[in-house]
Amino acid sequence: MKRMVSALALTSALAALADPALAQQHGDWTVGVGIANVNPKSGNGTLAGMAADIDDGTALSLTVEYFFRDNWGVELLAASPFEHDVTLAGAGYAASAKQLPPTISVNYHFPTQGKIKPFVGLGLNYTTFFEESSPLGVIEMDDSFGVALNAGADWQISDRGAVRFNVRYIDIESDVTLNGAAIGTAEIDPVVLNIAYVHRF
Description:
201 residues, mainly beta, Porin, 8% helix
């Protein structure tokens, strides 16, 4: 969470230093293709009475954004599956699972004169887990709904193209069962780092 606050502060500072000008116009579309890393927070709850640790995962990312007003866009985030391993303190490897975290956000893009165009956003995430496996038995992870915060900046490299770096904080928690019995809640709450090429239509 501290990393997300720092990113928001940096984005606000960039916006404050920028001269006002029109960034994106009503009716514009953008499509972004990149690489995202989902990095769960430290300390991922207690499962079966033991402290859990969930590792990070990297996958391809895709964004589509429609500007319903000048500088205001509705964005859908999609990705190829992320895979995570779960280890338990004192027991080692316990499980693995794949997940998809589609997220819809409303973003505000600060108008600037320069090539750097910062933005912030607020949205809703739905994470679905699948292909769970464990040497301990049949493990299942419930799907999750949560708030998503977004901050980043586009670096214009052409009239319609930009390189985007952004960071998200997503509230993800999943109730876990093993052989049908509840064993705790996986508290994932990741920071998601993304770098992408974004094209405006």
